[in-house]
User: Fold DUF6534 domain-containing protein from Serendipita vermifera MAFF 305830.
Amino acid sequence: MSDFSPILRGVTVGTNLNGMVYMLEVFQLVSYLRHYWKRDGYLIKGVVLLCFVIDTICTIAIFAWAYIDGVIHWGQVEYLSRQFWPTPTWVFCTTFVGAIVQSFLIYRYYLLSSQRIMSCILAIFMFGGLVGGFLLGIFNITFVSYADREKPKIISMIWLISSSTADVLIAVSLVLALSRVSAVTTIRRTKLLLSKLIIVSIQSGAVTTILALLLLTFYLASPTTNDPAIFGFILGRAYTITMLFNLNIRRSLETTCTVCGMNTLGGAASAATKVGMSNIIHGEVDHAASGLHPQELGLPQLDVNGTIPLEDAHSFGSRSSLRASKAPELV
Assistant:
C-alpha cells in the first residue's frame, strides 16, 4: 500500500468531499428553481444551468477516477503511476466554471459601476486563469505519467494565481462599489442591506481564493501525488455554490425590507409600485435622498423615462431598473 497511497489518499478524500459539496449545490439549485427561475432573465438561467451541467460532468469524472484507481486497478502500481481521462476532464471543468462565474461577476460589476478600466483589469486576470487551466489540461492529456507532474509548475501557477487574483479583485471592486452607494444614502434600511451585500461579496471571494491557494500550495509541495485533489476537486463546485448562494440570498434580504418592491424586466410581474427605500437587492438605487447625480456615483445617466437597465451587483437578481424616486416617497 505504501507504493500507491500518495496516489489514492487525495483522490479518496477529495471524492468524498466533492460528493458532499455537490449535494449542497443541488440543494441550492432546487431552491433557486423554486423561487427565482421564473423571475430571472435568460442570461442568468443559462449561466446557472451551464455551470451545473459542467459540475455534473466533473463530478462524474471524479467518481470515475476514484472507482478506476481504487477498485478496478486496486494495487496495480504500474497503472496507478499514470493519469487518464478523468484528470484533464477535472482541470477543464474547474477552469471553465471558474471563468464563467468570474465573467458573470465582472459583467455585474461593470453594470453597477460603469468602470471600464477596472472591468478590463478583472477580465485580464480571468482570461489568464482560463488560458492557464486550458494549457494544464492539454499538458495532462499529452503527458500521462505522474513523474511528469513537476514540469507544468509555471502553468499551474498561472492558472491558480490568476484565478485567485481575479476572485480577490472582483470581491474588492464590488465592496468598493457598494460602499460608495452606502456612503451617500441616508436611509437606514438601505445601509443595512448594503452592509449584508458587502459581507456576502467578501465571503464569496474568500472561499474560492482560499481553495485555489491551498490547491497550489499542496501541488508545489508534492507535485507527484494526488494530495492537492483534497481541495482541487471541490473548487469548481465552490464557484457555482457561491453564485447560487448569492442568487438565493435575495429571499432573506427581501424579507428584511418589507416595503421594498421589485422591478424586473425579465418576465415576472413588477411590484415596483411599492414605495420606500431603494431596492438595492435587485439593483434599484435611489439617489434623490443623496442629492447626487448618478454619474457622480459612477453609475450611468438616466434616460428620458427616468430609468436605465441595471443588473444587481452581487446578489444575481434579475434585470432591473435604476429609478429616481421623488424625495417625499423616501420614508
Remarks:
- The chain has one domain: 4-260.
- The longest strand covers residues 307-310.
- The radius of gyration is 22 Å.
- The CA atoms of residues 62 and 138 lie 18 Å apart.
